[in-house]
Amino acid sequence: MQMSDGPSRVPVFVAPPNGNLRSPGCVPSRVIPVRSPPPAKAPPPSPLKPIGPPPECRATFNLSEEGQHRERAQILRKNTFICFSVSLGAFFLFLILILSLTSGDVLDDNCPDHSPSLSSWNPGHNPEKAMVVRGGDLFRLDSSATFYSLTIQSGGRVVFADNTEGSKNITLRTRYVLIEDGGSLHIGAPKCRYRSRATITLLGRSDEKAVAEVPELGRKFIGVRGGATLELHGAERLSWTLLTRSVPSSGLATGGYAFQRNFSRGINLRVVDQDTAAILFTERYDTYESRNDSRRLMQLLQSLPVGRIVTLAVGDSATKNLLDETKRTIQSLLGSTYVHDLKYRQAWALVSVIGGGNGSCSEDVREHENHDTGGKALARKNFSTVDGVGFSVTAYSEWRNGFPISGFQVDAVDQVVLNLQDDVHTWQPGNHVVVASTDYSMHQAEEFTLLPCPHCTSRQVRVQGKPQFGHMGEIVDGVDMRAEVALLSRNILIYGEMENTCYGNNWCQFFGHDTYGGHIKIFGNFTSVHLSHVELRNMGQQEQGRYPVHFHRCGDVDWRGGYREPAYVDGLSIHHSFSRCITIHATNGLLVKDTVGYDTLGHCFFLKDGMEQRNTFFHNLGLVTRPGTLLPTDRNETMCTSIRDKVYKNYTPSPSMECKAVSTFWIANPNNNLISNAAAGSQDAGIWYVFHSSSTGDSHGLVPETRAELTPLGIFYNNRVHSNFKAGLFIDKGVKTTNASAADPREYLCLDNNARFRPHENADPNRPRVAALIDTLIAFKNNDLGAWIRGGDITIQNSGFADNGVGLSFASDGSYPKDEGSSQEVTQSLFVGESRNRGFNGGQNKYWGQGGADGKMRTLPRNRTFPIRGFQIYDGPVRITQSTFRNYIPTKERFTSAVGFNLKNTWQLTPRNNLSKLSFQPTVGLRAFFGRPGQWFDENDLDGDKNSIFHDVDGSVTGYRDTYVGRADNYLIRHPGCVNITQWNGVVCSGTYSQVYIQTQGASSLSLSISRDDYPEAPLVLRGINSQGALSQQYQPILMMSKSYTLHWNGPAPRETVLSLINFNQGDWVLVGLCYPYDTTFQVMADINDRQSNIFDDISDYGPVFSLADLEKRLLERKYFFDRSVGLLWLYLRARQGRDGHSYCSVKGCERVKVMASTSSSKLTCNCTAKAYPKYTKTPSAVVPMPTLSTQPCKDCGASQLVFSSDPWNSYLQTQIKSVSSKEQQTGDTQSFITVNSETFSFTQPGIFLVSVDACSGKVTNKRSFSKMDSKMEEYLKTGLPKRSIVLLGTRGQPDGLVSVARYLVPLGMTKAPDLQSKESLVFWGFQGGSAPPPWASILVGQGEEGLGLQERYLPLGLEAYGCTQTSTRRDLELLRTATGPQ
After folding, report:
1. At a CB cut-off of 8 Å and minimum separation 6, what does 1374 contact?
2. Burial of 212 (0-12, 13-18, 19+ CB in 10 A)
3. Which positions carry the signal peptide feature in this UniProt record (predicted)?
4. 1235 and 1162, same structural domain?
């Protein structure tokens, strides 16, 4: 994934020879749920006292001078001598420089430490010295040093020395490093990377009152002021990559095994499957008391097949009735040398293989003395599963404190190998890595230390210990769920020295560890700043402006700012940080590339003030982003309600509305670029676009109006978000830009619901909209939402959503009349409800229950009963087209649907929510669901719930073309030909539908009852969107066009009612009758509201007519009829203007009818239903007849691509194998087939079926079936399989000779020949023609009652490892060049 070549402005880095790196402070196999305290302080070379800044100490040389002046007569001769001496001295100085380098070094102009102008510097350790390096001081630091502080200024330069062997290992310990006014600090260079180990340790505590703070910088920092240079370039190492093979919890798919017991007398036995490490049989044989048990043990051993693993351990004693024939059996079958000489209560343990002889046996004995033994009898032996996973089998026996103890263990400790997507030969033993969670909880991320691995390929590493959680390394159900694996170690380390526990004013009520780390702050007008492949640990402080890396008000740092080499950070490892990762503050044009931010507090990659633009984030990884205290948006619920020093008086913040937004990527202006990043676990969101109405913080007033809401979106391509609690991607909301006051007591910069993203050209609302493109988003295992996106126009394409509480939810950029109507579209995407990634019950996952297509136990989002939805409709208009849905199966506990609606929705919905060209796989049990009273839905009776509707444009959802699907109990949309779908709680109807926006004034807390004259017995009651008691209210019913309706109130009629036509096409009409007291007088007028200018045009009055029949004849005129006997004011709502695109209103504005009523009966309840019906009752009828049900398959429906991966430039092959055993056929399961990219090859005859696929092109090259393993099949396996082929194998029935197939699977990718004795079905993926087996090569065997079922794998195509020629184009690199090139 990571590429060493970036944009042309970034040098191509040359990898140095490998070094042995070790990063202090990381714990092998450290699990993330509880953050451990930082490592204890390393003792400094000499004591460091909390003193004030000492007198400045200038670094000087002691240079020799000439002696006394000679006589005048000797001057000429002396000058000649001096000239010669200077020349000779220069020669010797140059020679000394050469000799000071190691013999293997060659002068290189690219290496800063090779400069002849440098002087060797060995300042030693003086923790009280404030060292200043000034103009003329050009130092090469050759050894470790300790200062109170180091200031480099006025042209001074400090360069860390290096050598070819990488053995310098220099540590600088200081309270701070300040570079300013022409000063420079260099460790390596882009074309001469640092080989040795360089460490800068930043010292100090937050409570050292005697230590003065440096203005704008505080304490414990590296500061880069104007005119300064900071160049740090460590050895280039792959920053992060992806797993290519799943790693189960414990490292073994069987989960491992551990057993220990006291007083388990006799010989305890375990039989282990040599292919899978599964425990097959457990038993205790009391050979001390029972001869029969001895015989049973012998018989069991004799019945086991050759190759089976057997392990024995004595509990108490086993000798009294251990028969000689049993001993001989143990000796002959297991190779024991001790069994014949076992004594009373002697501890004995054995691990061996049936038929393996002495060489396969590991055993141990210990003598028994006075209920104790001389240690533990321990036997251990290493094995490998059939697909190459190493494991150990251990048996032990001992007497301890008078108790006999025996036990067994099967595990993969120190044997787990991670298979990775990229070449990681630069990762070294002793380095530390982190593997991301692939479940709902980010706390399943795990740290490991790398171990030597002589047998590993360049894409494999071995880790210490074993994983506690499972980590996916596959594309699952078409969505890329491979775990990120990041290298934490670098050979340049900058870290803050920490205390063991929290102290002082470091928010110890929230954190149990010290949070006062170091920080790097870069100010504007610097000369040059480039940071690459540096490790930053224990950095950041819970104070504003103190971050691991902080570009502070630097302005343009690319060509626009005059930089020939634009600033960048590349390949950084920022971990265990106490305040963010990288902060970009009033800085534009920065490239942040290949950087890892792990286990941090507060927003990780952070744009601060809302004015930062043109920054590019390329291939960065952030994971385990925890809450912090700095901003309300950083805080969790406890912090939010506890930190109240900046709210007005005694105001208590609302956590859900003002806080709880901590995000891995906090993007405060849309004009920034995100390409190929991963947000792999945050307390709230992975990527959050938030909108500042004005510049905030230190930048307040610099940009009075940011117009962020109107600014077009930068590049968004190929980003992945998973394991986040609130949402993977969140585009919505703003921040409060005023201080707390009585009018608004909330804290400055708290979350605010005041922004709606609506991008236009040049951020000008009078210019055309610019659609924001979200391209290739992968969102999985997000607890609440895969993505929540508000605004428009917005398009999502080529994206995959899986295992989210809700896959994707759009929200409009407001409600009428503020929202002008916009487009939100999803196309060419995949939605998976519950995938084969079942997760792991632990690591702060809260819910565990049945689900998925297989009905097995799995982790669950939100709750066991939470209604999982793929695409959620909130308001609209939205369009989803050419997309696929898989694995939405409702259970007894929850409703799981492909399409659903926002729960407990008060908001309006539009009938212009268009669904078309959708594909629903057979694993979708509920295509749509409209809710039902109960948990999560409550009464399901809010206005939005009742008006839920969508348009099935082509019938791909219901089978009925151009129909509308709504709530079954909504009779405003029904006619007699509608089709009920009870399971959905829905109804499918034909017709034309639009909304009427009804706004009332002068009557609060009114409910509106709407009856259609066709169905007066089934009115729709709306309570309104505004809170009860509001002076005005609004309702938005969806009405079938060309029908008549009556409107009634549960109290006095409002004195003013405005009815606006929403989504009406020209000529659409409805007839409405509004209920009023009989003595009411009216003023009725029509107008058109231009919302941009807020001008009302075409104002005209309605005139009265004296009968409904007369009104019906004058449809085109503006007339009304008041039926005083009933109390109904009848008038037509008819659209006279055309509507453009997705706008709610016409091209001229919003057509409205305003009714102003006066009455003396102002306290009467205005419900005219009893008088209106049956007088106005009509026979139900359809305006548009129902279409016929289509029985043809949907053409061109669903996403065209089968795989949605994070490397979209690569191709993948979808394979499915369905083998079936004889027992399964007897129970009615008769299908057996192999599918390759939706092309299915069925096999109906018993036997073995093989399909070969070209590994480069993905084309099927051969398919063969054999009734049994015979000479023909043997010859085919030897010579008939095409080279460079993916081999797929399945079985039907129980073919003869299946055992003989085993040895032919080894050349196809198996580590050893599998045991196929008594196996009833087989599924196999292999590769013909490779030197090393691909990580996806695997075998599954079926035996007993449970069959294998349908097995699916997605296999990479066109790899160089197959011998293929790479032809794909890296679009992400093209976009990177576009984003970072000259503008």
Report:
1. none
2. exposed
3. none
4. no
* Tokens linked to 1040: 């079938």
Q: Provide the 8-state DSSP code for 893.
A: S
Retrieve residue 1185's tokens.
Answer: 């007849």
Examine the domain organization and report whether 1251 and 1339 are in the same domain: yes
- Using DSSP, state whether 89 is helix, strand or coil: helix
**pLDDT for the residue 88:** 53
Tell whether 1250 and 1112 lie within a shared domain: no
Distance (Å, whole) CA 1343 – CA 278: 14
Nearest to 657 by CA among 744, 583, 743: 744
Which alpha helices (DSSP H) does 580-677 contain, by range? 637-642, 655-658
Judge contact between 331 and 384, C-beta under 8 A. no
Q: How far apart are CA 729 and CA 717, in angstroms?
A: 13
| The residue to which tokens 């939405």 are assigned | 888
Our CA dihedral for 129, 130, 133, 138, rounded to 10 degrees, sits at 30
CA gap 998, 993 in Å, rounded:
16
**Integer angstrom CA distances of residue 623 from 249, 718, 1185:** 20, 17, 55
Tokens of 745: 């007591």
Q: Is the dihedral of CA 1170, 1176, 1180, 1185 positive or negative?
A: negative
Q: What angle separates helix 324-334 from helix 291-303, to the nearest 10 degrees? A: 20
First to last CA, the chain: 27
Structure-token pair, residue 685: 């969101």
The model's pTM is 0.92
Q: Would you say residue 645 has pLDDT above 60?
A: yes
**Residue percentage of the chain with pLDDT more than 70:** 91
Q: Are residues 324 and 395 located together in one domain of the fold?
A: yes
Classify each residue of 21-30 as buried b or exposed e, where b means 16 or more C-beta atoms within 10 Å of its C-beta.
bbbebbeebb
Tally of domains in the chain = 3
The verdict on 1164 and 1222 lying in the same domain is no
Beta-strand relationship, 229-233 and 986-989: unpaired
Instruction: Summarize pLDDT for 179-189 with one digit per residue, the tens.
Output: 999 999 999 99
Across the strands, what pairs with 508? none
For residue 548, whether the previous peptide bond is cis, meaning omega lies within 30 degrees of 0, is no
Residue 66 lies in a domain: no
Which residues, 6 or more positions from 1351, have their beta carbon under 8 angstroms from its beta carbon? Answer: 1216, 1217, 1218, 1323, 1340
Q: What is the per-residue DSSP string for 344-392?
A: TT-EEEEEEETT--GGG-EEEEE-EETTEESS-EEEEEEEE-TTS-EEE
Q: Which of 411, 428, 446 is the last residue of a domain?
A: 411
Q: Hey, what amino acid is at 992? A: T
In whole angstroms, what is the distance from residue 409 CA to residue 418 CA?
22
Q: DSSP letters of 1149-1169?
A: BEEEEEEEEE-S-TTS----H
Beta strand 794-797 pairing with 824-827: parallel
In a domain, 973, yes or no: no
What would the two tokens of residue 1361 be?
Answer: 């490892």
Q: Containing H/E element for 1350?
A: strand 1350-1357
Strands 492-496 and 678-679: unpaired
Q: What is the pLDDT of residue 105?
A: 56
* Boundary-marking domain end, from 357, 390, 411: 411
Q: Does 820 or 364 have the greater pLDDT score?
A: 364
Q: What are the pLDDT digits (tens) for 553-580?
A: 999 999 999 999 999 999 999 999 999 9
> Is residue 325 in a domain?
yes
Report in angstroms the alpha-carbon separations of 203 from 170, 383, 537: 16, 48, 13
Quick check: 199 and 172 in contact, CB under 8 A?
yes
Same domain, 351 and 296: yes
The residues facing 950 across adjacent strands are 965
In a domain, 614, yes or no: no
Q: Find residue 175's DSSP bridge partners.
A: none
Domain that holds residue 1155: 992-1172
Contact 514, 502 (CB under 8 A): yes
Residues 1352 and 1237 in one domain: yes
Query: Taking a C-beta distance cutoff of 8 angstroms, is the pair 746, 793 a contact?
Result: no
